[in-house]
Amino acid sequence: MVRWRRITAQFRVLLFNKSAEEDLAREVAAHLTLLADDFENRGMSHEEAQLAARRAYGGVEQAKQAHRDKRSLLWVEQTMQDLRYGLRSLHKSPGFTVTAVLTLALGIGACTAIFSLVNAVLLRSLPYGDSGRLVYLYMPSPQIPIPPEVICPSYADFFDIKKQNHTFASMTAFEQAEFTLAAQGSVNRIGAARVDESFFSTLQSTPELGRVLDASDNQPGHDKVAVISHSLWQSIFAGSADVLARNLVLDGTSYRIVGVMQPEFEYPFSSDLPYGNPRIKSTRIWVPLALTPQQAASRSPGADVTVGRLGPGVSVSQAQAEMSTIMASLDKLHGDDKNVWGALVKSFMDTSLGPVRPLMKLLLAAVSLVLLIACGNAANLLLARASDRARELGVRAALGAGRSRIVRQLLTESLLLGLAAGVIGVIFAYLFLRTLPLLDPGNIPRLREATLDVRVLIFTAVVALLTSMLTGVLPALTVARVNLTDLLKSGGSRPTASSHSRTQSALIVAESALVVVLLAGAGLLLRSYINVLSVPTGFSQSTVTLNISLDTRYSQPQQRLEFFNNLIDKTTALPGVQAVGAVNSLPLSNSESFSNFWVDGYGNNPEQLVQLRRVTSGYFSAMSIPLVAGRFFTTGESSSATNAVIVNQSFANIYFAGRDPLGGRISQDEHHTRWKTVVGVVADVRHTSLEEAPSPQMYLPGFQDMFGSGYVAVRSVLPPSTVASSIRAILHGIDPNLAVADIRTMTDLVSEASARRRFQTSLLTVFAGIALLLALVGLYGLMAYSVSRRTREIGVRMALGAQRWDVVLLVLKKALTLLMLGLGCGLAGSWFATRVLRGFLFGVGHDPATILTVCGLLVVCGVSAALIPARRAASVDPMEVLRTD
Amino acid sequence: MALQILQGTLDLMILRTLATMGPQHAYGIANRLQQVSEDALILNQGTIYPALVRIEQHGWTCGTWGKTENGREAKYYTITKAGLKALNEETKRWRQMACVVEKLLPEEQ
Q1: Residue B76 maps to which CATH number?
Q2: Is A56–B45 a contact, with Cβ atoms under 8 angstroms apart?
Q3: Is B3 contained in some domain?
Q4: Tell me: the pLDDT tens digits for A651-690?
Q5: Residue among A343, A273, A346, A271 at smallest CA distance from A305
Q6: Phi-psi bin for A239: left (phi > 0), alpha (psi -120 to 50), beta?
Q7: Which residues numbered 24-83 in B keep a CB inside 8 Å of some CB on A?
Q8: Which of A766, A764, A616 is nearest to A703 (CA)?
Q9: pTM of the model
Q10: pLDDT for A172-182, tens place per residue?
């Protein structure tokens, strides 16, 4: 209590120091007067009494200081003093302050921006309860050479696993679906999911309004209910409160709305399912799965996804062990198929975030380097400034400022710089986040949710603090080492130059080394990006594609055949349209179908698979896929009963090596009940990804009667929007209840396929650019500084006969030496960086061309930066210089 | 023999002085301390200021400006109720401490 009263009193003094100081002065004066009076009474003269009083009193200033130290919180007062002094001295040299603050702000801003991304993507918790306990359950088979994450357990297996396991607290199975939603006079296709009764409880998600789906909804006859997302509620029902009494018409069927989910819940997002429906970016409607008894008893894998929540204390590997055991026993129930089914338990977070983790690490590493360079620069500026202030600081030391007091003073200044830089850095980061949507590759989960939240701001504060310490500590220590006697003896003419400039040069070398590493990394990524873009895709990028999905009214193959033929005929008839075709899945659309096959006259492996597409006769022409040999399908070959097949070049090279593929025979079943004859060979098309070499592909006719959903491809001279609106009109004429979705040109698909690469390349290039700029500013600063210090020396040299050119060379030589040293270290660094980057590169490894370009760039920029101070040095007038000293 | 002031005892002495003599100015307090110690205590008079400010900030004294008999202005310190209480406690503590030290010293001889 008493202590508290004292502290508040001390704080009061901090605020009202002036009156306390006056009071003290008055009191001391009074005291001295009283003392002197006494001495006078004892018979001293006035003067003697005054002197004696002072002697008896002791040091007046010491007493005052002791009083001050006691009455106030000493450290707060000193800090405030330091702050005031720091602000004043920073204000006095605005050029230095602005450069230092901006330099640090760039570094801190880059770090903050990337950390806010990492925060949104990797750190922020997902709205699914304890998402660390969620796992996906897959049923891979070694016989099927596709990623194990494609196949989830069949429903029969799922129910058995659910019954037999002891490791899961709950499990759910769901399927992705798309619905045509008729609302407000237009029809749209909306991403949806058919979910079982455990879906919401497994994800531990609660509705914002109404209820989620339960077991009774999954009973046949009660399943026409739906839960909608917050965004759909807002967009279609304008957030109206009576939404729970409304209906939704999905694919012509009416569903009663029973619940609205929380705003952030739109699971599954496209990034949550590595092999999900690529058209569904996020899910906005959930309806009951309502399996038929046949579906529930099926052991062949379907389109379902299974998610489980691990029980308390159960690890992924424990779950994996149990699932492997259960699947081994269930595998015996898979009577007729030859595949051996296994189990794979994969953490939900790894699945969703695994692919982006390396990218986030890369970006963090890059911005850390940028920050280091910024720190180096700021430290250099501070060093230069500190040696300019050596005299001032020496005088302070001579007047009794302790070494720690001076270090504190300098650190306070760099702290001020760091703080200002932090604030500006946050502004930079904000601007970056505003431009982020332009760069969004679309496959980084929650990228757009990146914001400057509390965690990010705390991060920034810590970074700013560390940065201040990092930049401030070196100069502060160098200054504190100053030998006072030497300094004062030399008349304050900058005595510590040599040790300072060694440190400064070392910093510049380190900075250029880091820049080389960053530039090399960015260069390699750029080359990879260019390589990816110049990959021959095998199709015309101007082709317009769009998705059309038929509903249950088109259940007969004949109906579908008629519908698509009708649509294609009418579209072909449009003026300006050159070719129209259709396919079940487009290249680079992240969906694939495979088939077993046997080639007549080839040593077939029963497990070999080929990528399979069903097309209409006009598809190749519409996509401009060149014919290599033979012919395309004819319009007569439109049914799946046709025994014609077209293969790609890779297929022909492998399976018809050394013989004519045309007329060759391929069957899709072991017993060869039906041989198909190769009628044509077409060029390779990049189907899975731009960065993967094309695999063997096989095209079959029969798209129309086998698929109710697919893509129409149109090659024309018209702009894409005209094509789209014409097709919309045609479709409306044929069936007004159908919607066109996913209208894109093939350029869009290529662009999407390279978006992640574009994202990482552009970010890294920007950071490397910033780093280069910072390093150049640093180099320029150091050169300008050293020229200004050596003015006298240069003057003498010129007076002794040195030519201007010699002086320029003198400066450039120093700059080049530093750059070369930096380059040397940087090259070693970039050799390692290339190895680390390997996973991000495409078609390029250790690349001398890139490295040479980087070196050239650095040298040219560096020399240009040094040229300005060099010319200033050359313009020194020797007479002027010699006269002033 | 000239004595250094034992850490923390100056507060006690000042409070005692104020309690005995009523309101005093710094000079008066310093004089009184010197008198009582019969000049055994050598005190730079300025050194009592930190103690004065500490005591005042604890709320044990309260300072007001007034005039001396000779018409000089001076700041008079008056002991407060809290100050009297603190004086009691401090005195008790000092006695205990002195007792302990006293007991300890013969053993050491």
Answers
A1: 1.10.10.10
A2: yes
A3: no
A4: 999 999 888 999 999 998 888 888 999 999 999 998 888 8
A5: A273
A6: left
A7: 25-28, 44-47, 49-50, 52-54, 56-59, 65, 68, 70, 72-75, 82
A8: A616
A9: 0.73
A10: 999 998 888 87
